[in-house]
Amino acid sequence: MQNKKRVYISGAGPVGLITALGLCRRGIPVTILEASSTVCQDLRATYYHPPSVEMLEQIGFIDKLLEGGTRDRTFRFTDAGLGRSVTIDLDVMARRYGHGYSISAAQNWFTHAGYELLKDQDCEFLFNHRVTGVTQVQDGVDIAVEIGGMATSIRADWLLGCDGGSSPTRISQDIGFGGYTFPDRFLMINTRHDFEPEHGRLDYRADGPNWRLVIRVPYGPGKDDWLYRIVSRVGPDDDPDTLLTPASIQARLQSVRPSDQPYTVENATIYNVHQRVADTYRKGRVVLAGDAAHLNNPIGGQGLNCGVHDAFNLIEKFSAVWLDGADDAILDQYDRQRRKTNWEWVQRVSVENKERNEETDLDKRSAAMDHLEQVAADDDMRAAFLYRWSMGESLTYAAGID
Fold first, then answer.
1. For each successive 10 residues of the chain (402 residues), what is the average pLDDT?
2. What's the start-to-end Cα distance of the chain, in Å?
3. Is 206 helix (H, G, I), strand (E, B) or coil?
4. What is the pTM of this model?
5. 102-104 and 70-72 beta bridge pairing
6. 3-class SS of residue 268
7. Strand stretches in 90-184, DSSP E
8. Fewest C-beta in 10 Å: which of 56, 164, 182, 342?
């Protein structure tokens, strides 16, 4: 059994790495336990809203992130059935955040950047260390870990659980994960075709049950290190095996932009979509953040950016406990602020985003596009719209919770 005066974090995904870097920048030593042999290598969550960009700037993350990511200054709402499209310019966000752009970077590049930045910090990575359980003890936790099939344990003062939706940390503490799973699922297709001329870098394409999400995904520093991701709905009665056939995948891509040539497909997968929040984000010496604490559908980037917001709230409060001797009851405020915000703001708005894409009433869809055209044309309306869309409003809401 090891016993070190370090903060332990389970999970080397974006939220775990942000939390680690923020703590290290303040002089707090960190050890990260990661079940895999390296940091995350998949291409999942990609889009960082302006408030998150401002936060990442505070810990010196942006320059490294932009080596393989892009600044995105606009995005689109399209209604395919109505043949209408509106481009929203982020320039007005500079009023509040000092810059008018979001950043796109695939998760594998984000975690690579975080890993590189942490090499110069007092951060220890323990790869191939799978957390299998956590036991609360006096003034600390015993973390059960499996290493190459061998079981051991680590004594730590604190464990910050950033280990994803199926979090062993959360499960070990018998923390409920209330909410629901949608009956429909999402199909994600990654292709090399360049959709930017027709759809920009991000297009929310409403069309009832045939909606599509079109996203450019940069994943590295090379000029060809990018993909386009097409996300669409899979009905509860649809056969996954049929949908993943080459012919079916080509049909989905052709529905976005007809082409005489078949599309080059890198990969395709179907996944379940959840709306869930942990019953508590803090239990004794265990604190949860990111997907370990909450899940929601990905339309609008609410889950990823909410995880960033979790990390920075936790960095501030945990630093006060570790460095300044603050009462650890301040971590209960972290729980109240972040959990209530997720239940009452993030969950609601993320569902609204999904429902907007799925709307079948043409009159409502036409009215929605009318409103978006007004937003695009008026700076003040656009600033108010983007403050909510980019989750700045959720941060203000959280700050008001005692």
1. 78 97 98 95 87 98 97 97 97 95 96 97 97 96 96 97 97 98 97 94 96 96 95 96 96 94 95 97 98 95 96 98 97 98 95 95 98 98 97 97 96
2. 38
3. strand
4. 0.96
5. antiparallel
6. strand
7. 102-104, 123-126, 130-137, 140-147, 150-156, 158-161, 177-181
8. 182
CB 229 within 8 A of CB 152: no
The sheet with strand 130-137 has its strands ordered as: 2-3, 150-156, 140-147, 130-137
What is the pLDDT at residue 41?
82
Angle at 147 between CA 142 and CA 148, to 5 degrees: 160
Cβ density class 297-313: b for 16+ within 10 Å, e for less: bbbbbbbbbbbbbbbbb
Close Cβ partners of 363 (under 8 Å, ≥ 6 residues apart): none
Asked whether the domain spanning 182-274 has the same topology as the one spanning 7-179+275-400, the reply is: no
Q: Which two tokens stand for residue 354?
A: 């999904």
pLDDT value for 43: 80
pLDDT score of 380: 98
Give the pLDDT confidence score for residue 3 in this predicted structure. 47
Distances from the Cα of 369 to the Cα of 38, 101, 145, 202, 401, angstroms: 44, 23, 52, 17, 34
Stated length of the chain = 402
Where are the chain's structural domains? 7-179+275-400, 182-274
Classified as helix, coil or strand, 176 is coil
**Angle of helix 392-399 versus helix 302-324 axis, rounded to 10:** 40
The whole-angstrom separation of Cα 240 and Cα 355 is 23
Q: Is 60 exposed, middle or buried (0-12, 13-18, 19+ CB in 10 A)?
A: exposed
Helix (H) or strand (E) holding 215: strand 212-218
Fold of domain 7-179+275-400: FAD/NAD(P)-binding domain (3.50.50)
Instruction: State residue 123's pLDDT score.
Output: 98
Radius of gyration (C-alpha) of the chain in whole angstroms: 21
Per-residue model confidence (pLDDT) at position 334: 98
pLDDT at position 56 is 98
CA distance 398 to 315: 15
Span 182-274: which CATH code?
3.30.9.10
Answer whether 273's CB lies under 8 Å from 185's CB.
Answer: yes
